[in-house]
Amino acid sequence: MRRMAIRHLTEEQIQTCLAPTWRCFWALTIWLLGRTFPRPEQGVNRIIVQNYESVCAGTVAGAALIGVGVMAIEQFLPKG
């Protein structure tokens, strides 16, 4: 029987895989909150479910800012 070698993933490959996974998890969470709190007068429905576009846009913008910060750290701090 032939054994497959375990290939080590680079940090960039891991980030590329985790970003879509996080977005799918966030979309599923908002969908579940909408199913759990269906009435518009409920606080969770009013704050998160009805404003999901703003919440998702904020999440994407925050991720972009963190990405810029990581790149700046990688450029200006010595590796080691």
Written overview of the protein:
There is one protein chain. The protein is an all-alpha fold and 80 residues long. It has a domain at 40-80. Helix content is 72%, strand content 0%. Helix 1 runs antiparallel to helix 2. It is elongated.
Task: Throw out a few tags for this protein.
72% helix
What is the topological layout?
Blueprint (H helix, E strand, L loop, with lengths): L10 H26 L6 H7 L2 H25 L4
Helix pairs in contact: 1-2
What structural class do you assign from the helix and strand content?
A: mainly alpha
- The quaternary structure here is single chain
Q: State the helix count.
A: 3
Q: How far from one another are the termini?
A: 40 Å
Helix and strand string, N-terminal first? HHH
What portion of residues belong to β-strands?
under 5%
In short:
The protein is mostly helical. The protein has helices at 11-36, 43-49, 52-76.
